[in-house]
Amino acid sequence: MARNELIIWGIGLTELEAQAIRRAADGRARLVTWNSETLPDSEALDCDEPFLVLATWGAWGRASRAVPVLEGVTRAVILSETATAEDVQSATASGADAVLRLPIEQERVRAVVERAISVRRLYEDIFRMTQEIVLERELLSRKNEQLKFINRFLARAAESMDTVELLGIAQDELSKLLDITALHACIWGPSSEEVFEAELYLAENLSASAQQGWSSLLLDSAASLNGICLKDYRIVSLPTTGRTINPPSKGKTIILPLKAAGEIFGCIGIAGPKNYSLGRDQVELMNSAVSHLGLALRNAVLFSEARNEADYDGLTMIHNRRSFERRLKEELMRHQRYGHTMSLLLLDIDHFKAINDTYGHLAGDAVLAAVARTIRSAVRTCDYPARYGGEEFVIILPQTSAMQANILGERLRREIANLGFTEEGASFHVTASIGIADINPESHITSPQLVRRADRALYAAKNRGRNRVMVAAADEQCPSAAAMH
């Protein structure tokens, strides 16, 4: 490190020799003298950092051990006026960078000082350049690691179009940047009667107080970011990390907006076990990662909306027939793989054509929408309701026996019968007929065969007076009465 003051060490000098050197230095450096008995130690060397060491030949042996060869330090020996050429050669061979003879000549000393100063300045320049190179290498290394992090994040985010998977990837990757116990999110969209305003993505192992705390924080953050209150939302479970997740607290929580095309459409909440104190690099990396996450999540939301438009019935907001047929094949494959029970429920609104003819198609649409709402509220999350066509609805019931399906069918039948409708001052009610078919763990029935069995049970219910539930008998040809109304 460069010093403001240049220091020369003189070892074993007489007072006259010291004065001659001071005059020769001409104020450019300060002389510090040591006698040949009291030599400087390493602490003094670190403190003074001399650029030139002058020692008499008598003190040279000990001085050269006290001040070994060091970068940026010139070592000179002072020989007697009777010294021979062999003495000069011996001094040079012993490690002296310069040799002076007594009596001391100021011009010669001045030349040695000038040379030593040049060596020191050159060493300082090289040292500074080396430090700059090391710093640049560190900066390049950090930038390289940052690029690797972002590239890995982008590559993993491109692997999925599923929101839950993307949030899991984000938590996994951001955990390499800072300590994270959980990552939660809120994504909102336009409001309507049939569609929730927001989805809260929360870890499934949250306690009641933690869930309440995180829900409130995310909803408040959403209100702050988009300027409106979210009146309705649904909670989507994220896989647990196995770590205890406490309610959000100041200092241990980070809220970041999710943006795409300049629009804020959500936010994420990051929870840590202790207060966060982030460096600039961490902040830049995290903001960059969340920016890319926002684009990936926006694409996932748009993909989900497009898929829903393709898979959902626009009027009833439940799955359409095409998505039902695809799901039924998947469930049958799962049934055959694991040997689970399974049932299929087929529901038809009684005398639906008469409703359209009497009250109009708008009234018919209202009936279909109300029946769909009733079905949605009655089924489990693992069940799969769909509009099969016209006034017919179907429900796939995984791991459900005929007896359990019959209980659900009776409940739906009663709730539909209790629905009331009004059209232009006229009030009316509707009923439904329901057919159920189940398959046992050993069955290898195909999807068309299963639908056909449920359909036959449905028509048996209609033939016996409607507004009833019928379960197909084990013998495909003979449905048996499950309930009589």
TrEMBL record:
One GO BP: negative regulation of bacterial-type flagellum-dependent cell motility
Gene Ontology terms: cellular component: plasma membrane
Gene Ontology terms, MF aspect: diguanylate cyclase activity
Domain of life: Bacteria
Positions in coiled-coil regions: none
Reactions the enzyme catalyzes: 2 GTP = 3',3'-c-di-GMP + 2 diphosphate
Enzyme class of the recorded protein, top EC level: transferase
Domain GGDEF, chain residue ranges per copy: 340-474
EC number: 2.7.7.65
Gene3D superfamilies: 3.30.450.40, 3.30.70.270
Entry-linked CDD domains: GGDEF
Endpoints of the signal sequence: none
Name used for this protein in its record: diguanylate cyclase
